[in-house]
Write a structure and sequence with these properties.
Layout: H1 6-11, H2 13-42, H3 51-58, H4 60-93, H5 99-106, H6 114-125, H7 130-138, H8 149-160, H9 163-174, H10 178-186, H11 191-219, H12 223-228, H13 236-244, H14 250-277, H15 298-325, H16 330-335, H17 346-353, H18 355-388, H19 392-401, H20 403-406, H21 409-419, H22 437-460, H23 464-472, H24 477-505, H25 511-514, H26 522-529, H27 536-577
């Protein structure tokens, strides 16, 4: 791609406007809030102070939360890899009967997660959950808090975070050179040896990448620990939330958030360094597609099938029960008994017929839709400028726009709260904390890096000859952008919008810091329904919310991945017939 000169860049009014707006946004919402957080933590009175460190060391709760976070992150790095690699192998590598059905079961976490997933498991297995109540009818002395603490958080987050393996590891597996596997088999290598010496080493770069992402997810976990952790297992993120509510401990909350941010930066740097070291086997790019392998040993084959379907039950059961419970009277969940008389449509009638109940759902849809549309629209222009004009200034802007990717969401949210709780000149002297706009800004901020990376790649894939032809025919830069370039990247932009919309619908991490009391989003309403036995009616409403979310997210995922996946399968079938 050619590098445009400074002169041509400065001659374009559109480029200048985009650059000025981008610089203002970066300075106002990416640099200034985080700088304010650092200054407020280490220079509270205008002088360097380590009082926050002293409070951290002397706080048993804070130190325990740090230990719990790293313990959870380390545990997930093992458990998620074990489960994730296994489900990828049984769906994409080994010839397992019903692999398509197994994949659908494992893919349920693609359509629900976060606070919805944690609340669903709590409503099923928690203290007042259906399964706990059902077992309690037979064994009254059962420990009703059996599904809580470290065990419950690890189980739920293990199942919730295998989506990276399904999306990325499965894609890497499909690119392995099947001729290499055939050559190893002709040389006498068995199935297990081929898997261990050829397949897994070829997947090692992607395994390492998803391991780092999993570790970071565990380190900054908020929803699962806050819903299922109980009093004995609280991680850093819930402690940040607790400390941030008091002005006397906000500096401690800020310090914990900074520690999370530093850990994220270090781990991402380690991942980038490892990827550049070149010590891994590369994935071959060949025309021969990977063929599924049969497990020759009948006992091993049977054990793998049993484990695969047992995991399918574990993954699919919560989804099926959530759908069923959305039609149940709340007292049936308390009794732990399902009867025909308990089935009702009243829960759906309450949600759709009561404006106050439907309000959180509508609020989340509006927030998610606005944020998704705004970030994609803005990044369309920014990505075009960064991709076309390459110089030190645009390179610096691109790096700064990736700040939200290396900082935890709770750190970004806390920085926004602490910065804009007073008039700031950069936003026209307005106070944004406590307004509806701050949560929208946070949603836009956290989605910038993902959106920018994909849109920039989309623009880079457009042949330069198309723009040159438009210029030769006399088309101006705006006309070329509007009539030639944008139509070619719109499908990618639409897919990004759908993915962003999905991920923001049930957000809790940013919402819990920034939501307006009169416009409570869905994540906050769902979290409130998990607190205590007196919220049975809210529990039933939450099941309806979850079903609606799964329908919307499932539709979005189909529009993004389903059509392209179906086209790929048809192409493979045609290739195999030829």
């Amino acid at each position: 791609m050619r590098t445009s000169s400074w002169r041509s860049m400065l001659r374009s009014p559109l480029v200048l406007i985009v650059a000025l707006v981008t610089v203002w946004f970066i300075a106002t919402f990416l640099i200034f809030p985080n700088a304010t957080l650092l200054i407020g933590t280490f220079f509270p009175d205008g002088q360097l102070s380590f009082r926050a460190f002293e409070k951290l060391v002397s706080s048993e709760r804070a130190m325990n939360s740090l230990w719990h976070s790293f313990l959870l992150a380390g545990t997930l790095a093992v458990t998620v890899n074990v489960v994730g690699i296994f489900i990828v192998l049984v769906t994409d590598y080994f010839a397992i009967r019903g692999a398509r059905i197994l994949w659908l079961g494992y893919a349920t976490t693609l359509i629900y997660g976060g606070i919805v997933l944690a609340a669903g498991y709590n409503f099923i297995y928690g203290r007042y959950g259906f399964v706990t109540n059902a077992v309690g009818n037979w064994f009254p002395d059962i420990d009703r808090d059996w599904f809580s603490g470290y065990f419950a958080v690890v189980v739920v987050m293990t199942l919730a975070t295998t989506t990276n393996h399904m999306l990325f590891l499965g894609s890497s597996l499909a690119k392995i050179d099947y001729q290499t596997i055939e050559a190893a088999r002709n040389m006498g290598a068995g199935t297990l040896r081929i898997l261990w010496r050829i397949v897994l080493p070829a997947l090692r770069p992607m395994i390492f990448a998803v391991t780092v992402l999993t570790f970071l997810t565990g380190l900054g976990a908020l929803t699962a620990p806050i819903v299922l952790g109980g009093t004995d297992f609280q991680t850093v993120a819930p402690m940040i939330l607790t400390f941030s509510k008091s002005s006397s401990s906000q500096d401690l909350a800020a310090l914990l958030a900074i520690i999370l941010g530093l850990a994220t930066i270090v781990l991402l740097a380690m991942m980038n360094r490892a990827e550049k070291s070149g010590v891994y086997f590369s994935v071959a790019k060949v025309a021969t597609p990977l063929q599924k392998q049969k497990i020759p040993n009948r006992v091993t084959n049977g054990v793998v099938h049993v484990l695969a379907y047992a995991l399918f039950v574990v993954y699919a059961t919560p989804v099926l029960l959530i759908v069923l419970f959305s039609f149940l009277d709340s007292t049936a969940i308390l009794r732990g008994m399902i009867t025909w008389d308990a089935l009702t449509l009243d829960n759906y009638a309450t949600v759709f017929g009561t404006p106050s109940v439907l309000r959180p759902f509508i609020v989340s849809v509006v927030y998610s839709a606005l944020a998704s549309a705004i970030v994609v629209l803005g990044m369309l222009f920014v990505a075009r400028v960064l991709q076309k004009y390459r110089n030190p200034v645009t390179g610096l802007l691109e790096y700064l726009l990736h700040i939200p990717w290396i900082l935890p969401t709770i750190l970004i949210a806390l920085a926004l709260v602490m910065t804009f709780d007073r008039p700031q000149a950069l936003v026209g002297g307005q106070v944004l904390t406590g307004t509806t706009s701050l949560l929208l800004l946070a949603y836009i901020i956290v989605k910038i890096p993902f959106t920018l990376r994909l849109l920039k790649a989309a623009f880079a894939s457009v042949p330069e000859s198309l723009e040159d032809a438009a210029r030769i025919l006399g088309a101006g830069s705006m006309f070329t952008l509007r009539k030639v370039l944008f139509p070619l990247v719109i499908p990618t932009a639409a897919a990004i919008t759908a993915l962003n919309f999905n991920s923001l619908l049930d957000d809790y991490d940013a919402a819990v810091f920034l939501y307006h009391p009169l416009y409570q989003p869905l994540g906050i309403a769902i979290k409130a329904s998990t607190e205590g036995e007196n919220n049975l009616d809210s529990m039933s409403i939450t099941f309806v919310y979850t079903v609606l979310l799964m329908i919307i997210m499932g539709l979005a995922m189909y529009l993004v991945y389903g059509r392209s996946g179906a086209a790929t399968r048809r192409a493979r079938r045609r290739a195999s017939r030829n």
